[in-house]
C-alpha cells in the first residue's frame, strides 16, 4: 500500500490569506511533506490565488547569502598532501634565509650607561639633585661600516608602560582639541597645578617623559641628530592638536621627566608623541633621532650623555642604541628563524609522507567501501 499526501486544508487556507509578496511563505505552506509514493495531485495547489504563483521571491538574490560562491575542497590524496607541504617548505625556507641574512647585515651598537654614569653611593639622590652636573662621556667603537641613516634609540628595561593605571593616565580629547584643555579625567595625580589650573598635557605618561639627552661627535667634529619625523604621521595628524599648547607642565613640586616648549603645539612635540605611544613589554626602545651621515669601520664615536632620567628608584636600566636598517627594519632574527623552522618542518613532513606512501601504500578511500553501500543479501534494495 502506497501513501499519497494531500494538501491539508489548514495550510491551504493560510496560503490563500497571504499577500502577493509572500511567495516564499506560500511555497512553504503548499509544499507537501516527503512521501514514499508518487507526488501528490496538483489540483489543490491550482486552487490557490494567483499571487502565490506570480509574486517575486523575497529571498536575497546574492551568491554570498545563498552560499553559492565558488569553492574548492581538494581531496587530500597523497600527491596533494606531499605537494602542499613541499610547496610551503620551498617558499618559506628561502624567505627565512633571506631574512636572517638581512638581519645579520644590520650593524647594531648597544651601550648601557646607567651604572657608569651615576654615583655609586647614592644613585637616587644623585639624580634628584638639580645642582649636580649629570654629564657623562662615553666612547663607542664602530666594528663595521654604518651607512646612514643611523637610528638612535634609547632602551629602557623593567619599565612597565603597559600597566593599566599608567596607560589610562591621559586624556585624548585634551591632547586633540584646544577647547578641551580643562578635561583632566583619569589624569590624577597630574591633573591640575597647585592653583587648580589644568595641566596640558595631563597624566602620568606625559609627566614621566624621558629626559636623557645625547650629543655625538666623530673625529672631534659634532654630529647632528635629526629629530624630525621620528613620530608616526597618524599620531601627529590625528591624536595631537596643532592648536593645543603645553601649559602648567612640570611646574609642580615633583618633576617627573622632560619639560616641553610652550611655544610649540603638541603636534610638533615629537619626543612627547613617541613617548606616549606606550610599549607592550617592560623592555622597549623608542626612537630618539637619526644620524644622516655614514660612519666608517673602526671610527670612535664620542657621546656626551646628560643622565637625567631616574630609573634607579624602580631598578630599571638605560642603554643607548645605534642601529642601521634594512628591508626588514632593524635587527630581528625571530622572523627568519620562524620561517626556516616552519619551512623545514613542512619539508620533513613531505618526506615522511613520501616514505610512508612508498613503504605502506594504501587504497584511496571511496564511498562504495562504506558499510551501508555494500551489497546486503538480506536487503538488496
UniProtKB/TrEMBL annotation:
<keyword id="KW-0472">Membrane</keyword>
<dbReference type="GO" id="GO:0005886">
    <property type="term" value="C:plasma membrane"/>
</dbReference>
<feature type="signal peptide">
    <location>
        <begin position="1"/>
        <end position="17"/>
    </location>
</feature>
<feature type="transmembrane region" description="Helical">
    <location>
        <begin position="337"/>
        <end position="359"/>
    </location>
</feature>
<keyword id="KW-0812">Transmembrane</keyword>
<keyword id="KW-1133">Transmembrane helix</keyword>
<dbReference type="Pfam" id="PF03381">
    <property type="entry name" value="CDC50"/>
</dbReference>
<dbReference type="InterPro" id="IPR005045">
    <property type="entry name" value="CDC50/LEM3_fam"/>
</dbReference>
<keyword id="KW-0732">Signal</keyword>
<dbReference type="GO" id="GO:0005783">
    <property type="term" value="C:endoplasmic reticulum"/>
</dbReference>
<protein>
    <recommendedName>
        <fullName>ALA-interacting subunit</fullName>
    </recommendedName>
</protein>
<feature type="transmembrane region" description="Helical">
    <location>
        <begin position="80"/>
        <end position="102"/>
    </location>
</feature>
<comment type="similarity">
    <text>Belongs to the CDC50/LEM3 family.</text>
</comment>
<dbReference type="GO" id="GO:0005794">
    <property type="term" value="C:Golgi apparatus"/>
</dbReference>
